[in-house]
Structure formats: C-alpha cells, structure tokens
Design goal:
This protein has 140 residues and is α+β, with helices and mostly antiparallel strands. The chain has five helices and four strands. Strands 1-2-3-4 form a four-stranded antiparallel beta sheet, with helices on one face.
Length: 140
C-alpha cells in the first residue's frame, strides 16, 4: 500500500497510518500540494497544549459532530479551536465555583474553622461547576 494517495475527485491527500488512510491536512490547488495549516501571516499553526476540557470536547465532536471535526482538521484550525475551548472552559469553571461558593457562604473563615467540612463543600461545588461547564460549553 502506498504511503500517500491523492483522491482525484476531491484533490485531498491521504496518509497511510496503521493500515488505514487519513486526511493529511493538505489539498491540491492548481496541480500542486499546499499546506492548509497556515494562519493569516502564512505561518504554520503551532501545537498549542490542550487540557481535559478540550479533550472532552474533541471526543464529543469526533463522535457527534463529524463534519465540524473534519472541517477543522482539514483546515488546520483544530488545535486553535480546542485551545480556545480550553481557555473558555477554565475561565467559566473558576467563575462558577467562585459564584456558588459566595452564594452559599463558604469563606476562608470556614476553611480555618473546619477544614474537612470546607473540603467537602468545595468538592461538591466543583462537581456542580464541572457539570455546568460540560452542559453549556463542552457537549454542545
């Protein structure tokens, strides 16, 4: 089997990985291959680290929003998109935790008085905040 093939109908290039062909992220234009992973300054997009939130969202779009995943992958914007989702989710998570803790009167004074109770309450709040972020941002 060839390492790289080009679909003559679409002009997409496919790379052989473990006995299966996957889109390589490059397409043919005017008879020559052009990388699609460039930004406005024609610089390749750097690999930005993605965390747990982005990994959850990636699994979700791979399974339920295949067109979105494929479009982002082919255009080379997937990593930037996931980095943005990660940043939004982190900010939302910390904001929600802070808001719920303030509403329920969980303070540093409680932490000083009864650490075990404070940890239990904060774990509960973090679990609720995690569910809110998942519902409103990650699994949409």
């Amino acid at each position: 089997m060839e390492k790289m093939i080009i679909d003559e109908c679409t002009g997409w290039e496919y790379e052989l990985i473990e006995e299966q062909y996957y889109p390589s992220g490059r397409i043919m234009k005017d008879g020559c291959l052009q990388p699609e992973t460039v930004d406005a300054d024609n610089k390749p997009e750097e690999g930005k680290p993605v965390g747990v939130w982005a990994q959850r969202h990636l699994r979700f779009i791979k399974q339920f929003k295949k067109k979105l995943y494929f479009d982002l992958f082919i255009s080379g914007q997937l990593n930037g998109y996931l980095a943005e989702i990660e940043a939004q989710a982190e900010e939302m998570f910390f904001r929600v935790v802070k808001e719920i803790a303030a509403q329920e009167g969980i303070t540093e004074a409680l932490k000083a008085e009864d650490q075990i109770r404070w940890v239990g309450l904060m774990n509960n709040i973090q679990n609720r905040a995690r569910e809110i972020v998942n519902r409103e941002l990650i699994f949409v």
